[in-house]
Amino acid sequence: MDIKKKMLKKSTIALVAIITLVSCACKKNEASLPPTKTKSDPHFAGTWITNVASTALDSRANIQEAVATCKKSGINNIFVVVWNQGRTLYPSTVMANLFGENAKIASKFQGRDPLQEMVEEGHKAGIKVHAWFEYGFAASNNQNGGLILQTKPQWAAKDSNGNLLTKNGFEWMNAFMPEVQDFISSLVLEVVEKYDVDGVQGDDRLPALPSTGGYDDYTVNLYKAQHSGANPPSDYKNTEWVNWRADLLTTFLGKLYQQVKAKKPKVMVTVAPSVHPWAKDEYLQDWPNWLDKGYADLVIPQHYRYDIAAYKSTLKQQLTYVKPQHKSKFYPGVLIQNGTYNPTDDFFKQMIDANRAEGIVGESFWFFEGVKKFPAFFETYNQ
Hints:
This protein has a domain at 303-383. The strands form three sheets. The protein has an eight-stranded parallel sheet. Strands 6-8-7 form a three-stranded antiparallel sheet. It contains 14 helices and 13 strands. Strand 12, helix 12 and strand 13 form a beta-alpha-beta unit. By secondary structure, the protein is of the alpha/beta class. Helix content is 44%, strand content 13%.
């Protein structure tokens, strides 16, 4: 009887030892594997909310309604406009100090703070809110520079004929001039300091400048100082001239990125440029370089196309500029409304399916009003 007990005891000890070894081995293998994404992990889903062709920002009640729509639709990131037509959509001390008390906020929103209202309502719903600086280095649209360039004419960007730099109706400040760069940076940093935003964003105008620009005295003299006195090429598409100016904007973005992170490390710096290489050739936006240098937490190129063949082709092309280690920072911008245009239900679904087929688990929609046009799709989106 004692012998049987001893044998049973030894067998039990051996069995426990084997189970322990197997368990440890399994844990070791699990630790060596990358974490898997569970169904409960939300993917990135964004939309832009603007004060143009939308009443979403016209009152706090409208903001609450917009946030509720986003929540119901699976949108977890809102990019809300805070800078366009030479005005901020929040009370700006920077603007008041430079251009007078009447320039403190866009006149339509005097007495309110749409940005603060959006931050409060968005956070209540568990949605991240990003301050979107829509106009970037553009001073105005069809206003000949507006208040900014009337007050600061020395800030004007110039084309090769010495005229105010204008493209597609937008009139531009000189994005290479330190004083102008400091102005735009001060607006971004003002928002970071004053508001509990989750991010700040520039689009196809920040940082950017039409490649027809750069012929102002400041930029010409800077180029000459670095090129043995030679003038910039008269051909604005000259490769070296494009690269030189694009690098100046990349340097600006790198500095701004560091400034934001120094104030609030958790605030994201995102960009929504045009597609590459068109963005660089036309607006000096070298966003693959921004990713490589670590100057952007997310890049959301504007993949605005009107048929699935063009969309798929653009998506595949853009991914060739994104290194594997940066793919998690890349999300397409998807067009779901532009004026009276909306994609068909089938085309909309095909674009999202194309993203998923390429291993992309999110996108941002241009723009919010379009979200309301596809209730059936958004019932199950991001679930």
